[in-house]
Amino acid sequence: MMNWQKLLTGGRFEHKDGSIATETQNRSEFERDYDRVIFSAPFRNLQDKTQVFPLPEHDFVHTRLTHSLEVSSVGRSLGKAAGDFLLSKYPELHQSGISASDLGAIVAAAALSHDIGNPPFGHAGEEAISDFFKHHPYGYIWQPFVSHQEWEDLCQFEGNAQGFRMLVSQHNGLKLTFATLAAFTKYPRPSYIFEKDSNRRSHKKFGFFIDQKKDFEMLASTLGLEKSSPECYFRHPLAFLVEAADDICYSIIDLEDGATLGLVSFEESVDLLGEILGQRYQPDKLKKYATPTQKLAVLRAMAIGQLIEETVEAFCQSEEQMLSGEFDQALTEIIPSAKALGKISRLSVQKIYRSKPVLEKEAAGYQVLEGLLEVFSKALNHKFYQTEMYAGKDKSILRLLPEGFPMEGWGNSQNAYPMLRALVDFISGMTDKHALSLYRKVKGIALPGV
């Protein structure tokens, strides 16, 4: 049985003393986590990464950055309300220096960084990277030079695992607390497991690559996370709140974006939001707002407030089962508004996610990422593995790799995974526009200005 005292340990990888969060310069350790994320370069890059609509032209359509800020705001509300409940139930937490605001800060920081590992062009980008290694000649050519587990990592690019990698990377210098990293990790398992349990939400995807396995094991040991199987851990209970904050925001705000772009009618959007509000929905009060945009904004805010209340209640009812590992499903699937959220989800798939503008730009994203991976992978392969094919254009391509890229020690007798992982780090860390610009240049479609 996990316990909150240990789950809220404030240690970091930089000091593994297991100490509880302490005040530093008027900020708790968990508040410092939030600040470290928001000032980081990977977080800033989210301003030009796809949310739903790649490279959006409309000023009011959300990017990954605005989405992450909103998820973090909802997450803070969820975490603080859950903290009030936990401190009332477990008075020893207060005696250890834990406050409700600390739990709000943990969830807010984890939620702020929840999309930090997403590649350009959203989920289409994830599939493009995975498909490259599975299907492209210069992708699957690497299979003999990596282990089975490493090959699974490459063939199943996962933004959550990439995010964990970035947050624990020495290069980014974020060094978040173990508690925040665990709350961030919705899928505490590696890519390859012997048997996946379809009834456990935490088994749906994976949360760390094989080269971060030891990092996660250290984190789990420090926090007392228990295992559901030899390869998988139980979720940290606060990860359920991070997931719920994301579910709430993308359901409601994607609907609002769809209405803004004319993909969903105003009337249909109002009806769906009104269903969440129930008796609190009073159509007559909307008349005092002049425009459909203002009316939708009011309903959106009220709906999010309603969902926060319902989610906190569900968390409080399920908290003991979370500690034992018995509970493993999305909180938004068990709240009273679950049915209404299901309707929004189905409509969003039909009218938003499969709309022509989204599909067209996703298709372009596939071409861009596959093209970038092809030229860099081919050049690396020719330099280190098929040296007889190494040519001048390969040399030019490799000079475009970032400073610090590992360019020594590779060959037929060496495991290529660290080099390929660095290549995927480079490509997946690009913004949409950077990826598109570099693709045009390396393919000769556009020349840099001189």
TrEMBL record:
Matching NCBIfam families: dGTP_triPase
One GO biological-process annotation of the entry reads: dGTP catabolic process
**Where does the record place the HD/PDEase domain?**
60-260
Q: Please state what the protein is called.
A: DNTP triphosphohydrolase
Q: Which GO terms describe its molecular function?
A: dGTPase activity
Q: Which gene encodes it?
A: dgt
Which keywords annotate this record? Hydrolase
Q: Which InterPro entries match?
A: dGTPase, dGTPase-like, HD/PDEase_dom, HD_domain, PHydrolase_assoc_dom
